[in-house]
Design goal:
With about 575 residues, the protein is α/β, with parallel strands linked by helices. About 30% of the residues lie in helices and about 25% in strands. The protein contains 15 helices and 27 strands. The strands form six sheets. Strands 1, 2, 7, 8, 9, 10, 18 and 19 form an eight-stranded mixed beta sheet that branches. Strands 5-4-13-14-15-12-16 form a seven-stranded mixed beta sheet. α1 packs parallel to α4, α1 runs parallel beside α8 and α14 runs antiparallel to α15. The radius of gyration is 25 Å and the shape is globular. The chain starts with 12 loop residues before the first strand and ends with a helix.
Amino acid sequence: MGSVQPPDRQAVQEVDVAVIGCGPVGALTANLLGARGVRTLVVERSATAHGQPRAFSCDDEAMRIYQQAGLLDEIRDATVAPPLVEYVNGAGRVFARMALSETDFGYGHAPLRFFDQPRLEHTLRTGLDRFPHVQLSLGTELVGLTQDEDGVTVLLSDVATEQRRTVRARYVLGCDGARSATRAAVRIPLSGASYAEPWLAVSGDVPPDAVRVGDTRFVCDWRRPAFVSPGAAGSYRMEFMLRPGETQDEMQRPGTVAALVSPYVDPDRFTVTRAVVYTFHHLIARRWREGRVFLLGDAAHQMPPFMGQGLCSGLRDAANLSWKLSLVLSGVADAAVLDTYEIERRPHTVEMARTSVRLGHVFLARNRVTAGMRDAALRAVQTIPRVRRFVERFEFKPVPAYRRGLMAGGRRAGVVGTMFPQPRVLVPGAPGERLLDEVLGDGFAVLGRAGVDNPLGAWRPARFVAVHPSGTSLADLPDPLAGPPAPGGPDRVDVVDAEGVLGRWLRRHGADLVVLRPDRFVFGLVTAGGIEQAGRDLSAALGAPHGGRSRADTAGLAAAADS
């Protein structure tokens, strides 16, 4: 793409962020930005909804991100959580299983959920209607961009009429998939490998009494590996590896599809909604940023499907970058904070992709002897309780943690840099238990035992959550809904630790308080004697320009410690 030549006599639209692509990653990113008041334009080449059930699964981290976007109920109600995942051989004999119904990583949601992508995308796009400062432009494609020190000039074209218009954005986010026009525009190459083995992906709808295999299974048949599972809203998903010599046209024929699905569903009562042949990739962009242009999701990385983490990784990108952009755009943080996006996200993404590849090696044994050895070895090692737990409880999945980045000290140290748990709490004035994130707000939060002072004082972007032990009467605590906080005072919420999780976490890590980032990763731990240092650490990490709002607000950190 060449340089942008703005059309004559046309007003240039100005936005804070232009999001290119409105698949699940782009739509979620726009929702997260919209919730933080960022003026956002979302550009999508297709004039209609995608309508294809491509992505199929998400995890507890993804559900927590949807929760941050304020769309948890709508999305959760349209998903299903499988209780069990089995690995079976060609004869249907189980040689390994993951007991998902017994697995809880502590983030407030089931470790695996299946969804219908068209319905998910509809929910995410409808969510944008909440924000008058977010605009969705369908049937529009990116045809060029240029950058300068202050922003990006983006040239867009109407797909139907070819009429062009110019947009001026402070930042551009490429969420436009594996064939990203944004990535091409800034000339960022991909590195990695594509795998030669093609697969047939079949999605469809089936009534419950026409389902022949009701469990989620990896069918590790050396003759034809497959994945099969019931999905959300009466759907069923199957993927079959092609054998040498089989062609795309042959495999997509209705008769071939019917024969392949018949062991798992009644083909006469199975309505196919999608049957396509694809190959998978293990690719990553050489860099995820070029000036003011960032890559997210498949535009930045693509991985094998065996962990179901392709979309989840893109959602993590959105959760990581959106709040940092919001702070930079509002002057609370210096633009250097944006450098931590790739620093934090790339290593975790690479590790997740490598784990997916290793899992694929287990799945894809392609001869009888190798498959038999695999089955026997996995059955044998699972007689060891610790190994069996490692497999059954999905403990081989990389934990949500960052090695370096925006955290106290700049590097992971113990739980600093890891995702904080999300137990249920009780809140005065609110009926029943609530998930913790619902009371943390959308900015930084400080959580600590009641009676310990808030180290961030009156620093307005942060909320202080005072934790009272289980059994504390809600009637004895102030109702946060009873009236506004005192003028100039900190935003404070008192909660009761209904499950005792928060108190145990603080004791285990020797902390009186914990400072949480907006994406609920641990920024730092604080003891009563280290309050002043906590303020300095956060001020230094955000590093807002002199004269900006952050300098004035974070000056209150040390003052709070002295008061």
